[in-house]
Specification:
The complex is a heterodimer of chains A (268) and B (210). Chain A is mainly alpha-helical. Chain A is built from 10 helices and no strands. Chain B is elongated. The chains are: A mainly alpha (268), B mainly alpha (210).
Chain lengths: 268, 210
């Protein structure tokens, strides 16, 4: 069985052409990138606004609760409802893209909101005290401090989108999911297992890329080695103030996720 | 509504399968995550390795993992065991981290007092650390429970029967009532799982009742 899968993956003929692995891979990455861009453009400003003003908390709560809806239910419902009103390729891709955006927004929104909300009030006061306006506080202080959590929200969204784009092949979206769904429909185990390996590899690479970006982009001032005495002291000071270790930027950890902020749960 | 009433028997059967496919991995995952988390807690060098390792497992998309299971287990693609093992992997991935966090939440002086009273490592774990870690572990279990119920529905794409069948069938045969029933039933089941975990947590931590 493993040999068959390997043979399928290693055959150059399977890699070229409009429905070849290379083309499907590009398609998958393109859909995911478009979706994440749209979702980030919606969720980051909204999360910054909610965190900065303290308003719109219901929005975050609603988005979080909506995550419990099974993804394939959402996918099928929107395809069934929207599909007949669309023509051509759009009938297949647009419903999927809408669902993927809907799934990517909550983790980014939650991460951004949590990031801004967790900013130490003393830091905020100090920024106001030196004369920054409200929007400067947001852009120059709260934004950069919230960045680690915004990125970890984005990282969860990336995984969610790459995974769900695979499932969306069932309602006609292109990408690597085609191999899983078509292989399943025609009973070709080598094709679906080969596709599954490619999808798993893509998800892993995307996650590693996000981890690298997290490392590169986050301000060095927010990063501290967990073993230095100074950080231990600061952490102790923080917990003495009543903030658990879940607040603050030290949530950035090797896996980049934390139960309270991670998007993972809902489903993939 | 009439659709749901007409098919009550079928829905109940699928719901029970769903309970098993989501619930068994939840319990198995917890049983596996406790020793792993304890080990990571006792041997700090292992902690990052385990957290990163389990984190990587969690990145594998569910449909891909379901399909890859026969390759590793030698099962057939329609075998529900694939789904149980895959869901157990996800649960362990989620809970190892939670168990470590939970054990870390136990105050050091409590642990020291238990040691001073002559409790060995295992009895300390069982009688002191785990009971005190229940609230943190329960929080992780709630996340895992809701996420399991949701992910299991995807297994209908590979032909393993549970509530997700209502979703695929409703879509394929264009029966919106069936699709909506499937979504609501899955949500309801997630809620039941969540409440069940909270109920067990209350039973295990009577001192926190207020």
């Amino acid at each position: 069985m493993i040999a068959n899968v390997w043979r399928w993956l290693a055959d150059p003929a399977n890699w070229s052409g409009a429905t070849g692995i290379a083309a499907r891979l590009v398609e998958h990455v393109r859909y995911s990138a478009i979706v994440l861009l749209i979702a980030a453009l919606i969720a980051i400003p909204l999360g910054l606004w909610a965190g900065h003003t303290g308003r719109g908390r219901w929005l975050i709560a609603t988005a979080n609760a909506a995550r419990a809806i099974p993804t394939i239910g959402l996918l099928f419902a929107i395809s069934l409802w929207l599909g007949p009103h669309l023509r051509g390729d759009l009938a297949f891709s647009l419903p999927s893209i809408i669902v993927l955006v809907l799934l990517a927004v909550p983790p980014i929104l939650a991460g951004t909101y949590a990031g801004v909300e967790a900013v130490d009030p003393a830091v905020r006061d100090a920024a106001k005290g030196v004369g920054l306006t409200s929007s400067e506080v947001l852009r120059q202080v709260e934004g950069p401090i919230a960045l680690p959590l915004i990125l970890s929200g984005l990282r969860s969204a990336v995984l969610q989108v790459v995974a769900t784009a695979t499932i969306a092949a069932y309602v006609g979206l292109g990408g690597l999911g085609r191999y899983l769904i078509d292989g399943l429909a025609s009973g070709l185990y080598a094709v679906m297992a080969g596709g599954a390996l490619l999808v798993a590899g893509l998800a892993l690479l995307a996650d590693l890329a996000m981890a690298a970006i997290q490392r590169l982009v986050v301000s060095p001032g927010l990063r501290r080695p967990p073993t230095s005495p100074r950080s231990t002291f600061r952490r102790a000071a923080r917990s003495a103030r009543g903030g658990g270790k879940q607040t603050g930027p030290d949530v950035v950890d090797p896996s980049g996720r934390h139960p309270t902020t991670s998007a993972t749960p809902a489903d993939r | 509504m009439t659709w749901a009433l007409d098919h009550a028997g079928q829905i109940a059967d699928l719901a029970w399968r769903h309970v098993l496919l989501a619930g068994i991995p939840l319990l198995l995952g917890l049983v596996l995550a406790i020793p792993l988390g304890w080990l990571a807690h006792r041997v700090p060098v292992l902690a990052p390795v385990m957290v990163v390792g389990t984190g990587l497992l969690y990145t594998i998309p569910s449909l891909a993992l379901f399909i890859l299971m026969p390759l590793m287990l030698g099962t057939r693609i329609l075998d529900p065991v694939n789904v149980v093992v895959a869901m157990t992997i996800y649960t362990v991935a989620l809970l190892v981290r939670t168990v470590v966090d939970g054990l870390r939440s136990v105050p050091g002086d409590v642990d020291a007092a238990a040691t001073a009273m002559g409790l060995g490592a295992l009895r300390r774990l069982w009688q002191v650390q785990l009971p005190l870690a229940v609230p943190v572990i329960a929080a992780g279990m709630r996340v895992a429970a809701v996420s399991n119920v949701s992910i299991v529905s995807i297994a209908s794409l590979i032909g393993v029967a549970q509530l997700g069948d209502l979703l695929t069938d409703g879509y394929n045969r264009n029966i919106p009532a069936e699709l909506i029933t499937g979504i609501l039933a899955t949500l309801l089941l997630a809620l039941v799982f969540d409440r069940a975990v909270v109920g067990v947590e209350r039973l295990l931590t009577p001192w926190r009742a207020s």
